[in-house]
Design brief:
two-stranded antiparallel ribbon; Phosphorylase Kinase, domain 1; alpha+beta; Aminoglycoside 3'-phosphotransferase, Chain: A, domain 2; 5-stranded antiparallel beta sheet
Length: 328
């Protein structure tokens, strides 16, 4: 189960952390889209999580994610760390026995946890979420995955967002950047954030926008969500900034999942579309009823974000948000 070339490194990790050379039980965890190998192991009758990083590029470099997770673990945002080895690319942490987390409870607890995370000393800087979106937009357009007439309005309106959205260093905070449900674990009392592979210094609204995909369904939810995060009722500017950040997030998810689902090649869009809107699709992901493992579902998820983004950009709120953020 553990790759042969990593077996000695894992034995060394177990010895250093627990004084044993073997675990009593091991089970691979298949949730998530990360290339890392993740296992639930049992040592001395207690479960732990073993993570083996397999990527060798800059994104897979464990130095940044171990540093970020270490800072978060000290504040009980991430599970306790028992062992790290940058050279061997191995991490052992507490294993969180996840319990069901109702969206209403998450809407109350998660913003406060994000406020705590965003108050940590600065994580290493990599790029902004606007830069990330720009990279995947270029890759998507170069691949010519969809006919241009399907995305012309989308990219035209999106260019208006990036033209005025702030890129100020003062706005950057320590972010997780990958707040999908499998990385938000509830132990029955508190929420823990796991998988810090994408963590770096970023715009605070990037984390808020991703979490809102799952937790915010209407204006009241948005007001409660942002009030819980900021600790006070928010003004029109913050609502507008949040709304535009959501559009950047939609664009990132549309291009990323379309690239992954289509394998970077043009496709005939004859895929069977699930009869689910944006809210229902995310509710189903949160409930574990939809997995994004298959290429077909990735494409469906990309289309859900595209349609939601187009819908948002045809509203008066979009025009108002552009004006409010542009004059700040």
């Amino acid at each position: 189960m553990i790759p042969e070339e990593k077996q000695n490194a894992v034995k060394n990790a177990l010895q250093a952390a627990f004084g044993v050379s073997e675990c009593e039980d091991i089970k691979i965890l298949t949730e998530g889209l990360s290339s890392a190998l993740v296992f639930r192991i049992v040592v001395k009758k207690k479960p732990y999580l073993l993570r083996i990083i397999t990527r060798t590029d800059n994104t897979g470099d464990p130095t940044r994610q171990f540093v970020c997770m270490g800072m978060a673990a000290e504040e009980k945002i991430a599970p306790r760390i028992w062992y790290t080895n940058i050279e061997d690319r191995i991490l052992i942490t507490d294993y969180v026995e996840a319990q069901p987390l109702h969206i209403k409870e998450a809407r109350n607890k998660l913003p406060k946890l994000l406020r705590q995370l965003h108050s940590l000393p600065p994580f290493p800087r990599v790029m902004s979420f606007q830069d990330t979106a720009d990279i995947f937009i270029r890759k998507f357009q170069e691949a010519k995955i969809l006919p241009e007439n399907m995305t012309e309005e989308l990219f035209k309106q999106y260019s208006r967002v990036v033209a005025i959205y702030p890129r100020n260093d003062d706005d950057l905070v320590s972010c997780h950047n990958d707040l999908k449900p499998e990385n938000v674990l509830f132990d029955g009392e508190r929420i823990w954030l796991v998988d810090w592979e994408a963590a770096f210094l970023n715009d605070r609204y990037a984390d808020l926008a991703v979490a809102a995909n799952f937790l915010v369904k209407d204006e009241k939810d948005e007001a409660d969500f942002l009030k819980s995060y900021f600790g006070e009722s928010v003004d029109e500017y913050r609502h507008a900034r949040f709304f535009l950040a959501q559009q950047i997030t939609h664009m990132s998810y549309f291009t990323v999942f379309m690239l992954f689902g289509a394998k970077g090649k043009p496709i005939d869009l004859n895929i069977e579309k699930l009869d689910l809107d944006f809210r229902s699709f995310h509710d189903s992901i949160w409930a574990g009823k939809i997995s994004l493992a298959s290429d077909e579902t990735k494409i469906q998820y990309a289309l859900v974000h595209m349609e939601q983004m187009l819908c948002n950009m045809r509203t008066k709120r979009f025009e108002d948000a552009l004006k409010k953020v542009n004059v700040k």
